């Protein structure tokens, strides 16, 4: 009996050693061969740093995982990350350096729409694939053949908000409290889509980005007696003021406001606010679980949408490089990227007219309950 | 426009006005004692608010202790600022513009240090009296806002008494008005300047503790507060601490009523246009004559 157990253990050890030896050459080769250089231009400082830093975390995690598995075609990948300071002119300069001096095979980023436009002009001219961590921006981007977007356009974000408002809340009269930056972009999209959903905006109140008090604006929205209120801002103050001014109606917000950075500042008012988004770290979908667990182990924090977008960008690129080959050239790599891909964030089809192909069905809905995001059963499927 | 909305706007305007007034008061205190325009007054509030937050959230101590800690932190920062940076600069014969640049530079440095060590997250400090509101003719008045008005008013009165009735307050004024004359009669002029910064820091720290529950704490809040406080102090008359109150309330009410009557998008345009008009007709501030009397 004892000798049989010993023999079994010996066999198991031998099997592990064999597998280890089998993988070792691939791993060792990946570490010794020349790395495949990928450029990333992110907003690590400045107003967009909340996005860029999150994206960097996702990118670095994906890079490590791919290299631990042996890299791409036996070569490790190396993501060269540059900070654009949230400025388009700096983003363009950093991208040019990565393309012309570092000879990267593709660019990931930037984090902001204006910077994406500046970088896209370069990547398009040079035929270098670009995986922008933004939604589709100016219409000229539709003429670019190698620029793809990891996040949906604002029109889709607006539709996701309107779907929940009309189908779950059954609300038709909506008040809006929005800032003059991100909030204005979403509002424009909401106004272009509202008639299709039979929504009437009974009050629209704007305030400057970073406003320290919007109580009067919130009081005006309340006075219009809406059935639901959209609060869209990159700042927790309007959410607090809305409740402090006794807006008791359901609050629906947008994906850009669903950051822990803002939730912390909402204090006890981080409650009963709904967000259409993609990743609810507290309760991920099945296909998101591995990413969320890896992220938690690496950073001791829960990921959200922008971390996932960074992660997806690296994986999409790695798959394309695997298929086309790292030395195939920009056009071949761009073509390989175009194939549909089910990522952590969403299911992508970069061949779609909006260069993203994200459908409404990719959205999940979360609600803040006592400062924690909880995933709602509502879907648009 | 209905009556409730008008009342709500006035309440919001008064609350914000006292926020601006408290910061402006600190700027006026430092200017009155040193003739230096302190561009880092908002940073005293940032540090005061952050210290109070750490005491409440990390140490779990009561808000009263946190308030004292926040106020003291502002005072220590003010004193250290004068001792370590302003005094050596003065010794080398710096002009007014040098102090402005110095305090502005320190303001950016503190903001960057908070970003580096504390991060980008906004933080919420609990309000005095909780987060609830009283209802007055269907308009909401936050309990904390009531405390802010009461405590700010008390501080302003105490400062008035301090400058008018106490030996040290009078010495601080004398050192500021006539440096050589004050030194001749035995006043320690450098110490008086340090005390002016200390006092400005204490007021700034208190402003941080009182303002943080309303606007949340984040690394950029200092400069935002300084701008509004500076407008309040100039509008009212920089040499008269009461001027900051009048200036702050005027600014807060103009902003709030502009949102109500015109459009929230034009709030700052309307408020700043009116401020320009006021400054053209009252170049020494709304309490100009009083400020000159005050020295």
What would you say this structure looks like, in words?
The complex is a heterodimer of chains A (381) and B (295). Helix content of chain A is 45%, strand content 17%. With 381 residues, chain A is of the alpha/beta class. Chain A has a 7-stranded mixed beta sheet with strand order 7-6-8-9-10-13-14, sandwiched between helices. In chain A, strands 2-1-3-4-5 form a 5-stranded parallel beta sheet, with helices on both faces. In chain A, strand 9, helix 9 and strand 10 form a beta-alpha-beta unit. Chain B is mainly alpha-helical. Chain B has a single domain (3-281), classed as ABC transporter involved in vitamin B12 uptake, BtuC. Chain B contains 12 helices and 2 strands. Chain B has helices at residues 3-34, 41-58, 63-91, 96-117, 143-165, 167-177, 179-184, 189-215, 221-236, 241-261, 267-281, 288-294; strands at 133-136, 139-142. Chain B has a two-stranded antiparallel sheet with strand order 1-2.
How is this fold's topology laid out?
The complex is a heterodimer of chains A (381) and B (295).
Chain A: H1 2-32, E1 36-42, H2 49-68, E2 77-83, H3 88-101, E3 107-108, H4 113-126, E4 130-132, E5 147-149, H5 154-167, E6 173-179, H6 182-197, E7 200-207, H7 215-223, E8 228-232, H8 237-244, E9 251-252, H9 260-266, E10 273-277, H10 289-299, H11 305-324, H12 330-337, E11 341-342, E12 347-348, E13 364-369, E14 372-375
Chain B: H1 3-34, H2 41-58, H3 63-91, H4 96-117, E1 133-136, E2 139-142, H5 143-165, H6 167-177, H7 179-184, H8 189-215, H9 221-236, H10 241-261, H11 267-281, H12 288-294
Antiparallel strand pairs in B: 1-2
Helix pairs in contact in B: 1-5, 1-8, 1-9, 1-10, 2-3, 2-8, 2-9, 3-8, 5-6, 5-8, 6-8, 9-10, 10-11
- Low-confidence spans of chain A: pLDDT under 50, at least 5 residues? 1-6
Q: What is the element string of chain A, with H for helices and E for strands? A: HEHEHEHEEHEHEHEHEHEHHHEEEE
Please bin the fraction of helical residues of chain A.
Answer: 40-55%
The N- to C-terminal Cα distance of chain A equals 57 Å
What is the total number of structural domains of chain B?
1
Task: Trace the largest sheet of chain A across and list its strands.
Answer: 7-6-8-9-10-13-14
- Uncertain segments of chain B are 291-295
Largest sheet of chain A: 7 strands, mixed
Please tell me how large the radius of gyration of chain A is.
23 Å
What structural class should be given to the helix and strand makeup of chain A?
alpha/beta
Biggest sheet record of chain B: 2 strands, antiparallel
Architecture per CATH nomenclature, i.e. the level-2 architecture of chain B: Orthogonal Bundle
Name the beta content range of chain B. Answer: under 5%
- CATH top level label of chain B: Mainly Alpha
Helix content of chain B: over 70%
Helix and strand string of chain B, N-terminal first? HHHHEEHHHHHHHH
Give the rounded overall mean pLDDT of chain B: 89
**Which structural class is indicated by helix and strand composition of chain B?**
mainly alpha
Tally the helices of chain B: what do you get?
A: 12
Overall body shape of chain A: elongated
